[in-house]
Amino acid sequence: MYRYDDIDRETLADRAAEFRDQCARRLAGEMTEDQFKPLRLMNGLYLQLHAYMLRVAVPYGALNADQMRKLAHVARTYDRGYGHFTTRTNLQLHWIKLRDAPDILDELASVGLHAIQTSGNCIRNLTADPHAGATADEVDDPRIWAEVIRQWSTFHPEFTFLPRKFKIAVTASPKDRAAIRVYDIGLRLHRDDEGALSFEVLVGGGLGRLPHLGPVIRERLPVRHLLSYMQAILRVYNRHGRRDNIHKARIKVLVAALGPAEFARQVEEEWSLTDKAAVDLPGTELARIRAGFAPTGFETLPPVSAAFESAKASDKAFSRFARRNVMFHKTPGYALVNVSLKAIGETPGDCSADQMDVVADLAERYSMNEVRVTYEQNLLLPHVKLDDVPAVHAALVGAGLATANITLISDIIACPGLDYCALANARAIPIAQDIARRFSDPVLAENIGELKIKISGCINACGHHHVGHIGILGVDKKGEEFYQLTLGGSAEDDAAIGQVLGPAVSAERVAPAIDRLVEVYMRERRDGERFLDTFRRAGLPMFKEAVYAEAH
Amino acid sequence: MKALTANRLTDGEVVFWTGSGWSERFVDAALFDDNTAAELAEAHAKSQITLLVDPYLIDIAEVDGGVAPVSYRERLRALGPTNKLDHGKQAGGGADIAVLAHAHGAARSKGRVDLIRRK
Questions:
Q1: What is the ipTM metric for this complex?
Q2: N or C terminus of chain A: which is more exposed, having fewer CB within 10 Å?
Q3: Which residue does chain A place closest to B80, by CA atoms?
Q4: Interface of B with A in 2-41 (CB under 8 A)
Q5: Which domain holds residue A442?
Q6: pLDDT above 90 coverage of chain A, percent
Q7: Given an 8 Å threshold on Cβ–Cβ distance, is B81 in contact with A419?
Q8: Nearest CA to A465 among A457, A474, A477, A473?
Q9: Per-residue model confidence (pLDDT) at position B115
Q10: Of the candidates A382, A398, A414, which is a domain's last residue?
Q11: A453-456 and A470-477 as β-strands: parallel, antiparallel, unpaired?
């Protein structure tokens, strides 16, 4: 895993010292809140309903054991003993005190963590395929390129005050595990027959008030020109993005207004005027970064593990865990082990400090010191020997982290919603808890199969509701919490924005409505169809009728 | 009827104006029947920049057992998150917390909406 160098470490120490001074001046009354707010936001510190919230960046979702332990320590010492992993693969701490924030940034900096690029109208913390470096279907390690963009974008003077925030996701696999079609820029690596790497560049995807799937503006960009091409995209956006209207300021609105072809033409024109050699990364520097991600320490193992197979045969719970949470690794004898943060009845994405410590220990002992955060609000141990999976499973069981529900109906994305967030219209967490409890029977859940429910407490769509197989959006209807359902969305290769089912329903009617939808699916499904497939084949009306029938 | 609320600068804690200072508990909040007096208190709060962030007025109504903020959001601020009942002000329990927890009817917090609009 890439290690920060002296420049990175100095930068983080300087940044923490600068924020300490800014906090002191605010507390002394030398700055007003209006002056201070943009400074604290640039360090990830928001004011929410009950307290300050610190959003800690987890660049491309990658953590080592020391970093995870530090997050646990911060959660325990300065918060209430837990944190919330988000759809942006960051960690949010919901009970932070302003007076503690400088000490927290010092603590984080000591292990190469920070809250830079977690707020403001800059290029935000990047996300990448959480299976990077472990999956057989990737053509390169996407973390390398995410790290290249991180180093280029951090404190980039030209792109610190963009019209609006800017989010980039990178994958190197045909299977999209990074939701690249709903990002401001989505990058997918390809390798041609001669072995040359190129990027497919998508621009103008996004959720929120105006959901868009990002169109491809360039099919194949030679990887050596990544940064100059990104600069060209951002310059066109910086020049023409709608600074006059916050609701139309994201790049998706510009791309939609111009049309992808015209937007692409303007980018190509800007790029043709760019001194590419002055911007693109030198090969030596790329090699240095690449070396930071070189696989090390994999043993030559047989592809089948007797210990793993025997545990599967003798232990039903382990067998289910192996089916749902353990995935194929490119190296024989190894596996990816998903750690679900969706225990039935718990808050999606929440992880206690004690659980973080358990995961850190497991990463250090069994997963080459690596943990990943996924945008679906789970954790992942990317490099576990099949022989060790039973021991890892046992430790996860002990920590309440072994729920075998990855991609199932209880593996729900939910934003913090009105329980914490100052922007929310309605709560998201209790809705997720209701649904998960209703489908808590693991046999039923497996029988239903893949079904992705995503819940947002407001139209900003942090819970990705537009791209849920079933999406749930909290709305304020005459002052009460109501929920609008959408069906047929997806954030993956078959990306789509969901269709609105009908009028919003009250909170207590959401879980029963999910029941009706699942009943229709179970009745109508054909061999091998997921909920999404049946919905797309059968269409909205029969699902709508099932949910609203009793209202007539 | 109105009350005056804010978040405390040093720790973000939700606080309510008591008439002579700031309390963490809603039960201590001064209630204004008179808009002018409420707005005067709000103006004074806005000058306390080393103590408070974003003071604003909230609507209050009579409910079973006492008074409570009209809006669900403001009751939630006065209680704590519903997914962790051991966190926030509700953790301490008490009769005043029970009154808030059992208050019915929800409405958007007008004070908060005004605040967001101003931003």
A1: 0.93
A2: C
A3: A50
A4: 7, 9-14
A5: 422-551
A6: 97
A7: yes
A8: A473
A9: 52
A10: A398
A11: parallel
| Residues of chain B with C-beta less than 8 angstroms from the C-beta of A349 | none
CA-based diameter of chain B, in Å?
38
Q: Are residues A384 and A318 in the same domain?
A: yes
Residues A167, A140 share a domain: yes
**Shortest Cα distance, chain B CAs vs residue A95, angstroms:** 8
The CATH number of the domain where A541 resides is what? 3.30.413.10
> Does the beta-carbon distance from B72 to A26 stay under 8 Å?
no
pLDDT greater than 90 at residue A348: yes
Question: What is the pTM (predicted TM-score) of this model?
Answer: 0.96
Q: Which of B12, B49, B108 sits opposite A29 (nearest CB)?
A: B49
- Residues spanned by the domain of B86: 2-118
In a domain, A1, yes or no: no
A439 and A543 housed in the same domain: yes
Number of folded domains in chain B? 1
Domains: count for chain A: 4
User: What is the DSSP annotation of A291-316?
Assistant: HHT---------SS-HHHHHHHHH-H
B49 vs A contacts (CB less than 8 Å): 29, 32-33
Cβ atoms of residues A230 and A145 within 8 Å: no
For A348, nearest residue in chain B (alpha carbons): B83
Q: Enumerate the residues of chain A whose CB falls inside 8 A of the CB of residue B10.
A: 27, 97-99
Q: Which of A463, A445, A443, A442 is nearest to A454 (CA)?
A: A463
Task: Collect all residues of chain B within an 8 Å Cβ-Cβ radius of residue A423.
Answer: 116
CA gap B60, B2 in Å, rounded: 5
> Which candidate from B53, B84, B112 shows the least CB-CB separation from A47?
B53
How sure is the predictor about B119, in pLDDT bands with cuts at 50, 70 and 90?
Answer: very low
Same domain, A144 and A236: yes
Q: Are residues A334 and A203 in the same domain?
A: no
**Interface touch B76/A418, C-beta < 8 Å:** yes
Task: Give contacts of A51 with chain B, Cβ < 8 Å.
Answer: 7, 11-13
Q: Considering the domain boundaries, does residue A115 fall inside one? A: no
Q: pLDDT tens digit string along B25-78?
A: 999 999 999 999 999 999 999 999 999 999 999 999 999 999 999 999 999 999
| pLDDT number for residue A296 | 86
Q: Is residue A405 part of a domain?
A: no
**Residue B95 confidence (pLDDT) above 70:** yes
The angle, 0 to 180 degrees and rounded to 10, between the axes of the packed helices A429-438 and A510-524 is 40
Tokens of A484: 């609008």
**pLDDT tier, A391 (very low <50, low <70, confident <90, very high otherwise):** very high
Of A292, A314, A334, which marks where a domain is finished? A292
